[in-house]
Amino acid sequence: MSGKECWREDDEMKRYNYRGVDHVHINVTDLDRAIDFYTGTLGFAVAGRRDPDKAWLNFGQYPESEPLWYHNLALTEVPERNDRYWSRTGLNHVAFELESPEDVMAIGDDLKRRGVRIIRGPGVHAEDMTYHVYVEDPDGNVIELMARTDDTHAELRESAEWAPPPGWTPADAD
Known about the structure:
alpha+beta; two-stranded antiparallel sheet; 2,3-Dihydroxybiphenyl 1,2-Dioxygenase, domain 1
């Protein structure tokens, strides 16, 4: 079955309220070297860092006084290259921003009903208070569907969690 057939519903393609690609998350074998490259070579700014293995960078569009770590690029240090996406070098996931947390809930429920593998979430990231759900595409590529929260989402924000620690694996990993 092609991707087009997989996502058709009553001969009509279902549409969601996408806003754009929010960030890319790359696993690296040396976090300091990667930060040096992205900041020193490409001009990114460090939004935040959580030792021992994570950093969040942006294009410099946010003031240094911004307390949340809004980012266009996330980096996670892994010990070696391997085939498990959550701990290998290369692309970790791509994030697509939706209009609201309610849209994330709706698409997450819809994808789960369709049998799409949910890797993580729904939940709220502590570093930037975005509401998210992570899924796999048919080839195993990881996609984060996310939306920003604000003060009207206090109940969601209370459940915020930091990114998984080193050694984390999805509950259903082989």
